[in-house]
Amino acid sequence: MIGRLNHVAIVVPDLKAASAVYRDTLGGKVSAPVDLPEHGVTTVFVELPNTKIELLHPLGAKSPIARFLEQNPSGGMHHVCYEVDDILAARDKLKAQGARVLGDGEPRTGAHNKPVLFLHPKDFCGTLVELEQA
Known about the structure:
The chain is α+β, with helices and mostly antiparallel strands. The protein has a single domain (about 5-134), classed as Roll (2,3-Dihydroxybiphenyl 1,2-Dioxygenase, domain 1). Helices cover about 20% and strands about 35% of the residues. The protein has three helices and nine strands. It has helices at about 15-25, 65-70, 85-95; strands at about 5-10, 30, 35, 40-45, 50-60, 75-85, 110, 115-120, 130-134. Strands 1, 2, 3, 4, 5, 6, 7, 8 and 9 form a nine-stranded mixed β-sheet that branches. Strand 8 (about 115-120) and strand 9 (about 130-134) form a beta hairpin. It is globular and about 45 Å long.
């Protein structure tokens, strides 16, 4: 069901500093920051030959990742994103198998302007999983 790894998301306390590390130290191609108010985050993508790294920073006090950053002041890995061909079919199959879809269960538009869903980390070996329709 899952396709390729689309990205690994890392929450960072300082987006500018993290972007510099990926650009200047590691030599990555780093995008400009993009605010996503509907998700409460600012994102930067680091393009790699085989996938992407998404750097996440809270956008506003009600950001869903603000608590993560409070508990992990240095930041850390937040989620992995896998591509699926049909997000609704994937959701329905996963729910039938007992997996928990976060939120209201309906896809939202993600950072790539494609439908996304998040799956409960307790159902996936302690890892928050994002599914993105390819």
